[in-house]
Amino acid sequence: MNKPFTFKLYNNLPHPPQELIDLINFDLKPESNNTSTMGKRELINWKGYNGPALRNMRRVEQPFQSVFDSWIKENITADYQNSSLMYCHGSGFAEGSPSTGAHTDFTRDYVLMYNLRTGGEEAELAFWKEKGQELIRERATQCGDYESLELVDSVKGPANIWYLTNTRILHSTENVKCLRLNLQISFDRTIPSDLL
Predict the structure, then answer these.
(1) How many H helices and E strands in the chain?
(2) Counting CB atoms within 10 angstroms of each CB, which of 6, 29, 31, 73 has the fewest?
(3) How far apart are CA 39 and CA 33, in angstroms?
């Protein structure tokens, strides 16, 4: 791809079947972060908030993983790094932070996601450029100072559609008021040709 993209919607990809969705525990509230070593982010001047970011998304592996993998290989692509079910619990600005904080991912360059719960009507995925820096950043980059960021793109939800994100661009999840839960398919360095 010549021009970097923030996200792409995929109207042509099939929705996850109800029998897979029925395997998901929508009430799970993981206590610890097991997705990376990055942990919580400190937010500075973030829409009037200073303090730690919302707890990072949590990964749930079993028993959903193997069934979901089979479905991905048959219906989406066989060329991917891993798949997971990710939870983000928002509490609202009055009780917690308004953002996950701007970051690039720790272990992947791209991720294909499908939101089963968006985190509320105002929840959105935002993409940022840090002033004085390139748009594409190294993995595991963090920037928690809102005033040093420029918003380059955002999308509410999205709901009921697969969307591919470039995780080497600083991104955050904003305005999460309740459960945000999505299926994720990770790609290490390249996007499979069947998704281009």
Answers:
(1) 2, 13
(2) 31
(3) 7
Instruction: For 137-195, write each residue's pLDDT tens digit.
Output: 999 999 999 999 999 999 999 999 999 999 999 999 998 888 889 999 999 999 999 89
* Closest listed residue to residue 47, CA positions, set 90, 122, 99, 121: 99
Going by C-alpha positions, the residue among 9, 7, 4, 13 that lies closest to residue 194 is 13
Q: Would you kindly state where each structural domain of the chain is located, as residue ranges?
A: 10-24+40-170
Structure tokens at 3: 């021009």
b vs e for 74-99, b when ≥16 Cβ sit within 10 Å of the residue's Cβ?
eebbeebeebbbbbbbbeeeeebbbb
Mean pLDDT of the chain: 87
Most distant CA atoms of the chain, gap in Å: 48
What are the tokens at 7? 């996200």
In 54-109, the DSSP E strands lie at 58-60, 82-89, 102-103
Cα radius of gyration rounded to whole Å, the chain: 16
Collapsed DSSP state (helix, strand, coil) of residue 168: coil
d(CA 94, CA 71): 40
